[in-house]
Amino acid sequence: MTAAMSEDDKTKGNEAFKKGEFDRALEHYSRALETAENHVIRSNRSACFSQLGQHEKALVDAEEAIRLAPSWPKGYSRKAAALFFMGELDQAHAAYSRALELDPKDELVRQALADVALEQVRKMRKQRLDKICKSLKSQKPQPQVYLNDHGLDDDDAALLCRSLHGNSTVQSLWLGDNIIGDAGATAIASVLRNNSALLEINLCSNKIGDEGATALSEALTVNQTLTELYLNRNCIGQKGAFALARALEVNVSLIRVGLSDNPVLQQSNEIKRAIDDQLWANRSHEIVEQDCKYTCNRLCMPKNPNDPCTPSMKAQPIDQGQKSCLVQ
């Protein structure tokens, strides 16, 4: 096979790749490599293997491209892509970093490097969640679960809740600043129905709407031990707020409820008065409004152990005789 034929196969491989015909592109690249080694064709074939889900073969070709052209950045980015899909995030990060060193202007590699770094954080958070779940199942004493800002979604919340069923040690559950929605809130509600150890739940800055708020409210008609529930900065409207108000008619354990920055507070004054009047009628309940109860308004997003809003550094409550500021 001549060099001209090899170049022809490379061209045909590139055309097939652009059309998404990766099997055909692979055949052309493989034929081209039968004539002589070439770092560009190795890189192209590596990309084909990646598209076909054959990441180990993609890695072999990428490493061969690097051997043939150690200063060529594309070989490192191909290697990084293969390693990323193999779950080797640390090695992928190193390979993308090397590619960026060789070509600092490559914005695609820069973005890929940022994506790997984000995935490393997600993996670390997932590992921490798994570790906590195992600990909860073992009934090892753990009065507080702190998973604020961990990117937790509904599935993660459900996984955590399965571990909380039957747990008698956790008293404080902090899940603020995540992406938990109605399904996750419903899973938490199922725990509330059967768990008498939990005293505090923080769900600030999530994506909980009326369905999730209603599920939590219905659970509160059964649970009589939870004392604090923070739902600030969610998506709760009239239906969810009224469900909470009805639950407070029979629930006597809650002394602090956070609802600030929800859509319900932007709606009619009538619903605001209805909720406020119901809570004010029961002097054992307080509504927590940002900047009203706590000196710091970052209640659900402490990032620093020394932050005055961390669970272990709570501010003093306002006088129970002071009227709620919910409807401001």
From TrEMBL:
Start and end residues of each stretch annotated as Disordered:
307-328
Listed A to Z, the keywords are: Chromatin regulator, Chromosome, DNA damage, DNA repair, Repeat, TPR repeat
Annotated localization: Chromosome
**Does Glycoprotein show up as a keyword for this record?**
no
Q: What Gene Ontology terms for biological process does this UniProt record contain?
A: chromatin organization; DNA repair
Q: Where is the composition biased (Polar residues)?
A: 319-328
Swiss-Prot/TrEMBL TPR repeat ranges: 6-39, 73-106
Q: Which residues form a coiled coil?
A: none
Q: Pfam families from the entry?
A: LRR_6 (PF13516), TPR_1 (PF00515)
Give any Gene Ontology cellular component: chromosome
Give this protein's Gene Ontology molecular function annotations: Hsp90 protein binding
Q: What family, per the record?
A: Belongs to the Tonsoku family.
Q: What is this protein called?
A: Uncharacterized protein
| Source organism per UniProt | Hanusia phi
